[in-house]
Amino acid sequence: MEKVLITTWGNPFEWSDITYVYEDGKNTKITLNTFCTLPILRRAIKPDRIIVIVADTLANLINERTREPPMKQRKFSSYDDVLEDVKDRVEYFVSDKLGERFDKIDLIIAPGVGVFKNIEINGDILDYYHYVTYKLAELLPATNMAVYLDLTHGINFMPVLTYRAVLNLLGLASYLKATRLTVLNSEPYPRGVAKERLKDIMLNIKSVEDQKIQPKPISNLLNQTFNRWNAFISSIANGFPLIFATFYPKIKEVKDEAKNRLNSFLEGIDVDGNIIKRSLSLDSDFKTLSKLYYFLKVLNTEDTFRNLPKQELSLEELKAISDRLFRNLPRVGIIVEEQIKHLEETLTTHGKPKKHIESKWKPLVSYTKIGGISSPSDKSSTDDKRIVRNFIAHSGFEYNITMTKKTFNEIVFKYKSKDKVITYAVESMIFRLEEGS
User: Fold this and answer.
1) Three-class SS of residue 55?
2) For the chain, which domains are there?
């Protein structure tokens, strides 16, 4: 299981050294005098990857008392200059103050907001959350993992928004991977205490949350331009295996769309000396694209999904997808399993297509009387919500638009009208969100 340590930092040049203590509950106790929790956690946890998250508000920052870091303040002419300045200051702290290797750390410099002596940044506070989600989607592994989130040194909005970003991504990874989250925080630093007294004080780093992460689907839709991807998002949340396979996105296309939006956001940042203004915001669509990209990164590690998208799927392929993707979901998993079992019993005998199943495409409703499948016809389903409920109840196998035939010794399925299926899938997601389920 891969170990990842994620930590949020406010202003590291305000921190003083003190003794930290970490116990992992397995007879391991480490004590270390240092300026922050990173060195002791690296020794104790031995993470495979370390991610440090700071805000761009560190640009030009100097501690007036200690005059650290020993770098000049300057007037910036571009946002790249701002990012380079922040990177240099964090590198000084990591290398010179902590004695750690900077090249062993993945640094995220996220968009901050606020007016400070060193810099003024104007923008949307949620840009931080959406950007961190995007960068973590790039950096987090697509394997079984134990994530340690250290919130000791984050300030203002950083801890809560980072926690949300991590939890959402891990909820997607846990569809296929064993995933655990441990949230850490140390006891507060005793400010105003005499130096002589500080030598005797030890701050315990505590686990404030430790949980096995359960699967959690993406809970937002993109704008209508991306309704094919929205259908896929709905297939995860509602348990639609045929839609999942039919509209499986290309990961490069999703990543490129997110990257293009990020580039537009960065190009819209105006830098005038020490004043930074963001004319654009990273919106909810950008966050959703980031999560979709990460989910595809996880899915693409499995052979079951590597040949997708696919327009025609056998019953065995649908069973394999459903078993791998939905089996651990208490409600959705049971419904999908029952629907596929019902189709199998209706259309096959001992794993072979029943004799009356034809070799040409016919809607499932054609086998209603013979096979015992029941579904309201298009004429009787005039109520939109009734159609959506029916679509959800049958795991996307709506019998009027789901086509089937036998091919050799297999039962094969496809959709008659992709446009109609997309509409039903999107409406199903909207219905789910409105019902709060």
Assistant:
1) strand
2) 2-212 (3.40.50.10640), 312-437 (1.10.3740)
251 Cβ contact list (under 8 Å, min separation 6) = 293, 296, 297, 300
How do residues 381-402 score in pLDDT, each as one tens digit?
445 678 888 899 999 998 889 9
Positive or negative, the CA dihedral 303, 307, 313, 318 is: positive
Q: Pick from 96, 95, 4, 2: which is nearest to 42 by CA?
A: 4
- Give the span between the Cα atoms of 363 and 98, in whole angstroms: 67
Any idea which of 146-150, 263-267, 351-355, 432-436 has the lowest mean pLDDT?
Answer: 432-436
Q: What share of the chain is helix, strand, coil (3-state, %, to 5)?
A: 45, 20, 35
User: Tens of pLDDT along 67-101?
Assistant: 999 999 999 999 999 999 999 999 999 999 999 99
Closest-CA residue to 349 (of 403, 413, 409): 409
Encoded tokens for 45: 């946890």
Please state the separation of Cα 343 from the chain's center in Å: 33
Burial of 156 (0-12, 13-18, 19+ CB in 10 A): middle
Residue pointed to by tokens 């039903």 = 424
pTM over 0.90: yes
Contact indicator for 223, 394 with CB cutoff of 8 Å: no
Looking at residue 142, the DSSP 8-state letter turns out to be S
Q: Count Cβ atoms below 10 Å from residue 64 Cβ, excluding itself.
A: 8
pLDDT at 27: 73
Q: Residue 396: phi, psi to the nearest 5?
A: 85, -5
Residue 212 confidence (pLDDT) above 60: yes
Residues forming a β-bridge with 207: 184
Nearest Cα residue to 413 out of 343, 315, 304, 309:
315
At residue 17, does pLDDT exceed 80? yes
Quote the DSSP letter at residue 71: -
